[in-house]
Amino acid sequence: MGLVIRKRAIVTGQVQGVGFRWSAREEAHRLGVAGWARNRADGSVEVEVEGEPDAVERMLDWLRTGPPGSGVDTVEVADATVDGDDEFRIRQTV
């Protein structure tokens, strides 16, 4: 594997109760990226994505649309520290 990066995204809109995290996990598996997704108490979804830059960018692009039935308003992206995740997980709500 080449260069590995990690990004954190906060996704707002109609993103809870629509299968967003589960669909994100499926898309992450398809793209070969690791990380996690979790609901936040404010109604947003927080996602961290780790992998090769092109794959991470494709995952961030997917987050900007989300799965059918969702309605993404905004996606705020920031750099995060690479931590060596080897799969994509669903985490508990915070």
TrEMBL record:
Keywords for this protein: Hydrolase
Give the matching InterPro entries. Acylphosphatase (IPR020456), Acylphosphatase-like_dom (IPR001792), Acylphosphatase-like_dom_sf (IPR036046), Acylphosphatase_CS (IPR017968)
EC number(s) for this protein? 3.6.1.7
Q: Does the keyword Cytoplasm apply?
A: no
Domain Acylphosphatase-like per the UniProt entry, residue ranges: 6-92
* Keyword field contains Hydrolase: yes
Gene3D superfamilies linked to this entry: 3.30.70.100
Report the top EC class in one word: hydrolase
> One GO molecular function term?
acylphosphatase activity
Q: List the catalytic residues.
A: R21, N39
Please name the Pfam families in this protein's record.
Acylphosphatase
Q: What is the similarity comment for this entry?
A: Belongs to the acylphosphatase family.
* PANTHER family reported for this sequence: ACYLPHOSPHATASE
Q: What is this protein called?
A: Acylphosphatase
- Please name the taxonomic classification of the source: Bacteria, Bacillati, Actinomycetota, Actinomycetes, Micrococcales
